[in-house]
């Protein structure tokens, strides 16, 4: 009997009959790999030679001084190859695909980070690759689309529904149902049917394992609180998992978008707007209406703009082990600006959500407290969104000239 991956009442695998055998094979291969010490060795070896593991822990000295409270440390997942924690998951799944003997990978992407990471992994391992991306996200993240195509991936803009991440996931599942013999779906976050929440969290746990050791080496004690942004939940699961058994408070930060009362946000666990349901093959909190139709979501950060959330995190909220908060677009842009100026770091808009909450709480803690933030990715990809938010005149002129150049070409 194969375990169907429940976390309290959340999780499971609600699958069309046609995909059951494919999932059974995946569960079995994943369990085998997990029980084989050489698999984790191969994984850490490739992450240390092809990506940048262990990623460093940076003491944010200037921010610490600025807020005058807890000592702030930043786990630098932005230094991974392809610029985000997504690399941890895709390289792990890539190694599994090799074990399963499949030759093609597909993926959904929101911010483009996961798509870019999957296309990179496919190039490295020699797999064919198709990426599904909502048309709205294609517009928001054009540079990532450019690179995915250069890496040899076919990028398919999804014009169904609200044309964002959830629609891309639906299309990826449709593809998988037709091509499961040779294709693996590299799901990008700790959501979806079992075994994805467990499997993605397993690969991302490398973040927490490293961070725990690094902070103990550096400070000789554990942090008081650990903060991570929450889209689907994979970077949060990654860093939190290093501290589940410790007396450390874990804080997940969701996207409050244009404000919790605006109806334009993506808070599933930090507000009362979401309810429990089954969609996309698993049971969790979804932003849905009374008929179970998915609501529109909004965030300045494409990677947090999702209706569902990891079933593992839903369960951790119910048990009270993780506290959930939310940051608005405006707060995020301000926190990003401060971090750039004070530390010379450019976090992704997604990661900047965690910084917002830290900036609210650091001054209320003592100088003996330690705060750890997961900087899940780097912000280069956000240049268009951020430049718009700052209404940067030089940038606006540059874009105008580019557009005119195209018209005259
Ligand atoms: C940099 C970055 N951080 C965070 C996320 C959110 O995903 P998750 O909650 O799975 O970590 C994304 C998603 O694309 C991302 O690109």
Structural class comes to alpha/beta
In spatial order, strands of the major sheet run 3-4-14-9-10-13
Q: Which regions contain 5 or more consecutive residues with pLDDT less than 50? A: none
What's the end-to-end separation, in Å? 63 Å
Strand content: 15-25%
Which CATH first-tier class of the largest domain would you pick?
A: Alpha Beta
Give the helix level as a range of percent. Answer: 40-55%
Query: Might you state the CATH topology name of the largest domain?
Result: Rossmann fold
Extended strand count: 14
Bound molecules: pyridoxal-5'-phosphate
Number of helices: 15
Order of secondary-structure elements: EEHHEHEHEHEHHEHEHEHEEEHEHHEHH
Oligomer: single chain
The total number of structural domains is 2
């Amino acid at each position: 009997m194969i375990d169907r991956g429940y976390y309290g009442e959340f999780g499971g695998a609600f699958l069309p009959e046609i995909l059951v055998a494919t999932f059974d094979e995946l569960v079995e291969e994943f369990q085998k790999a997990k029980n084989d010490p050489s698999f984790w060795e191969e994984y850490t070896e490739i992450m240390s030679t092809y990506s940048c593991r262990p990623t460093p822990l940076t003491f944010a000295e200037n921010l610490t001084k600025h807020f005058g409270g807890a000592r702030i440390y930043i786990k630098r997942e932005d230094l991974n190859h392809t610029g985000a924690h997504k690399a941890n998951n895709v390289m792990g799944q890539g190694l599994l695909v090799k074990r399963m003997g499949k030759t093609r990978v597909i993926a959904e992407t929101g911010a483009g980070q996961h798509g870019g990471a999957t296309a990179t992994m496919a190039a490295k391992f020699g797999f064919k690759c198709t990426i599904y991306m909502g048309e709205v996200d294609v517009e928001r993240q054009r540079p990532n689309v450019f690179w995915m195509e250069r890496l040899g991936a076919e990028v398919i803009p999804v014009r169904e529904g609200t044309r964002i991440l959830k629609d891309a996931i639906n299309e990826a599942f449709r593809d998988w149902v037709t091509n499961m013999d040779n294709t693996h779906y590299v799901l990008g976050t700790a959501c979806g049917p079992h075994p994805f929440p467990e499997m993605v969290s397993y690969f991302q746990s490398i973040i927490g394992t490293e961070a725990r050791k690094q902070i103990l080496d550096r400070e000789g004690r554990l942090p008081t609180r650990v903060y991570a942004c929450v889209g689907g939940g994979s970077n949060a699961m990654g860093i939190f998992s290093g501290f589940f058994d410790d007396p450390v408070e874990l804080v997940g930060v969701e996207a409050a978008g244009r404000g919790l009362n605006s109806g334009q946000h993506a808070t599933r666990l930090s507000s009362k707007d979401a309810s429990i349901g089954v969609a996309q093959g698993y049971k969790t909190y979804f932003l849905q209406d009374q008929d179970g139709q998915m609501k529109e979501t909004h965030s300045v950060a494409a990677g947090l703009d999702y209706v569902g959330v990891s079933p593992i995190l839903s369960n951790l909220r119910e048990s009270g082990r993780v506290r959930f908060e939310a940051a608005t677009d405006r707060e995020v842009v301000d926190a990003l600006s401060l971090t750039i100026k004070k530390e010379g770091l450019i976090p992704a808009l997604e990661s900047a959500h965690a910084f917002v909450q830290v900036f609210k709480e650091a001054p209320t803690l003592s100088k003996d407290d330690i705060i750890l933030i997961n900087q899940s990715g780097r912000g280069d990809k956000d240049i268009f969104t951020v430049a718009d938010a700052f209404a940067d005149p030089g940038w606006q002129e540059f874009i105008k000239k580019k557009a005119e150049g195209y018209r005259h070409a």
